[in-house]
Amino acid sequence: MLEIYLGKEHGEAVMEELKILGVTELIEGGPTMLFGRRVLGKGQNAVVIRCRHEVVEGEWACKLRRRDASRPSLFWEGYILRLVNGIGIGPRLLTFSRNVVIMEEVLGESLNKSLNPDVARRLLEQARRLDVMGISHNELGRGGRHVVVRNGEPIILDFESATINGSRSNVLQLINALVGGAPELRGAARRYKVERSDEAFRELVEGVVRLMERRVR
Ligand SMILES: Nc1ncnc2c1ncn2[C@@H]1O[C@H](COP(=O)(O)OP(=O)(O)OP(=O)(O)O)[C@@H](O)[C@H]1O
Ligand SMILES: [Mg+2]
Questions:
Q1: Does 41 sit in the ligand 1 pocket, CB within 6 Å?
Q2: 111 pocket-lining for ligand 1 (C-beta < 6 Å)
């Protein structure tokens, strides 16, 4: 069992939850180093460790809340991930508790590295589905740090800051991150903001793709 130090009491609480959720093992592996060990990732609020489950085969990703995290639990993230899984978005959720989210392990490339018009289109389609559902990820404007691309398919990670029923558009945030505030898109962006229609969305996507194609030439 890989030992990850999360603070004495907090660490014990996390281990207890892992046991109850059916995790049999935390294992080393992944692209990030933590205390000299390989892990899947680390952030401000959590560390993500490869793990195994007693019933469901294969390797999973266990997101473990850090003691100094800015949020008191991962419950919200778990609920939102369940919601968005319902429309085919995000890593597949296995189960979750106060300090643990167990989800599909997603290994791929960063968005920066693998961005092309096709990936942008697929990602915008996911953002559109979130807009229609009334779920805002709220961190898609941060340069695609929360998107991994696996075999050409973008997967959106980390729904901890997501909100429901708000008016913030995933599509518009993402476009900002992808191409910046391009003047050519201003009209279409405004139209989408007001109408939120399929037609305005398609106009916007075609604008983004044209812009990207022109930039690589
Ligand atoms: N399901 C997953 N499979 C593989 N790696 C993952 C998975 N989820 C997250 N990671 C990796 O772990 C990193 C941290 O995860 P995440 O962003 O969810 O944590 P966080 O503490 O909320 O981070 P932040 O401080 O950036 O908000 C991610 O950037 C990613 O590299
Ligand atoms: Mg986060």
A1: yes
A2: no
